[in-house]
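Blinded run. Sample ID left blank on purpose so nobody reads anything into the name before looking at the predicted structure. Input follows.
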Amino acid sequence: MQAIVRTARGSRVLAACLALAGAGWLAASAQDNTPVATGKYAGQIKLACVGDSITQGVGAGGGQSWPDQLRRLLGDKWAVHNFGVSGTTLMKSGDSPYQKQRAFANAKALQPDVVVIMLGTNDTKPQNWKNFQKDFAADYKDLVQQFAALPSRPRIFVCRPPYIAANGNWGINNPDTLLEIPVIDQLAKALKLGVVDAYAVLQGQDHLIPDHVHPNAAGAAALAQAVYHALTGKAAP
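Blinded prediction complete.
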């Protein structure tokens, strides 16, 4: 990671992190990676999975998206809802902002107890990346705070975006994905969010990402297991 920070792109990320600090977002000193306390919920725990095509399940096959597989891992105590929308960006200045999708309104209307956000992949497309330094951190904070302000007061987990294989596809690429990670980590510290390392579980596993962007069923299983571990503190069965 040190080598990344030395690049010109890394300098832009550092500037974004400094902007977080300058905005007073770093008052909290640590992420909140404690497992969800399931015992305090009398009924099912409502989990909203927010994301793009990787969350929706493109490339994984029917019933094999990571939220589908996570549902089976978590069992009946959890009600897992998939609000993934293909092509969407975290940034509101992107070519298909998640916040403008009906799924976003539906996710909030659910009044979730827990939210897992896996966005940022489509933001690496050139037409979106040009606004990264200006918009990414601020728009991520806005998205998180909209969920945090819900009456259900959900626990929120943010994901490091998944690894992109080889040279990527559709303008989506791994070098810019890496540059999003320090910003997401800083935001998680500032707002005391949980972090899921969706990048590490696929890193170097190019055979699980046939089109270089969308994990197949086995790749989606790896993502589901990473989220399961973050939510429960346990290794997936």
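Unblinding after everyone has recorded impressions. The radius of gyration is 17 Å.
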